[in-house]
């Protein structure tokens, strides 16, 4: 499913996802730089009831947020130059939480666990809108 969303709608999508992603989910966020991946992750983490506000893990590579449902891990593989750099993360811990959100999963190679849910975000001509593609196509994530 493709939708064009402004920032408030993207934040609302994140809140809906937070309530609908089952424990143990692995969410891949794909798309070019500045497409809204971290904004969406921040909304999910906030709505999941995190003990602190989510920030971009680009330089730290991963962040852990405590929520009432268990830890949410947020990983950003953007800086990886090769698969060997992804091996430095403790993937067994990352998949043990309530939710694992991975930005730029393609840069982590075979170390990145398979997605249970995938979203692709992209730029549109209107700089205030983002295209969101959910794979597979669960329309109920976007509706409501």
Whole-number average pLDDT? 88
Choose one word for the global shape: globular
Give the H and E element order.
EHEHEEHHEEEH
Q: Catalogue the unreliable spans.
A: none
Number of strands: 7
Distance between the termini: 15 Å
Count helical runs: 5
Fraction of residues in helix: 25-40%
Largest sheet, in brief, is: 7 strands, mixed
Q: Proportion of β residues? A: 25-35%
Rg, please?
Answer: 14 Å
Folded structure, characterized:
Helix 1 packs across helix 2. 26% of the residues lie in helices and 26% in strands. The chain has five helices and seven strands.
Care to give the gist of this entry?
The chain has 144 residues and is of the alpha/beta class. The chain contains five helices and seven strands.
What are the SSEs and their pairings?
Layout: E1 2-5, H1 7-20, E2 25-31, H2 37-47, E3 62-65, E4 72-76, H3 83-86, H4 91-94, E5 99-103, E6 117-123, E7 130-135, H5 139-142
Parallel strand pairs: 2-5, 2-6, 4-5
Antiparallel strand pairs: 1-7, 3-4, 6-7
Which key terms come to mind for this protein?
144 residues, 5 helices
